[in-house]
Amino acid sequence: MQPGRFSSLNSRVRQLKTRADAVFTLTDLSMAKNASSPAIELYWDVGSTNTYFAFKLLQPIVRRWGAKLVLHPFNIGHVFRENSYVLMNEPPAKLANRKRDLMRWAEKYQLPFNVPAVFPIKTSRVLRGSIAMREWGLEHAFVEAALDAYWERGDHTIAQYEGLRPIVQKLGVDPAVFETAAESDAVRQALVESTNQGLERGVFGVPSIFVGDELYWGKDRMDFIEDELRRLADTGRKDAVTTS
Question: What is the C-alpha to C-alpha distance for residues 163 and 126, in angstroms, rounded to an integer?
Answer without folding.
Answer: 10
